[in-house]
Design brief:
With 94 residues, this protein is of the alpha/beta class. It is built from 4 helices and 3 strands. β2, α3 (59-66) and β3 (71-73) form a beta-alpha-beta unit. The longest helix is centred in the N-terminal third of the chain and has 17 residues, at 21-37. It has a 3-stranded parallel β-sheet with strand order 1-2-3, sandwiched between helices. The chain has one domain: Rossmann fold (3-Layer(aba) Sandwich).
Length: 94
């Protein structure tokens, strides 16, 4: 993992709203990355907003993560929230 993290100045993490386990995986990846390369800005995209009725990730879980990372509910299909997420990360980069 260190090879693809080397030189990173920011992290963009993606979780699948229809699979709750991916939220925990994304959070763990962020913590591992920061342990390897130091604290860097990051944003979390919870994707598949177009499938919101099928989401396994609930509002309480999202609220808990929002306390740790900027979080964006996105849809790769429609583009909803994607530009905002990238913009937020860019604003936070050194």
């Amino acid at each position: 993992r260190l090879n693809y993290l080397r030189g990173a100045t920011g992290l963009l993490l993606v979780a699948d709203g229809t699979r709750a386990d991916t939220l925990d995986s994304a959070r763990q990846l962020y913590l591992q990355a920061c342990a390897e390369i130091g604290q860097v800005p990051g944003v979390l995209l919870v994707n598949k907003f177009d499938l919101l009725p099928e989401w396994e990730i609930g509002p309480d879980q999202l609220a808990a993560v929002r306390g740790q990372l900027p979080l964006f509910e996105t849809s790769a299909l429609s583009g909803t929230g994607v530009e905002e997420a990238f913009g937020s990360l860019c604003e936070r980069l050194p």
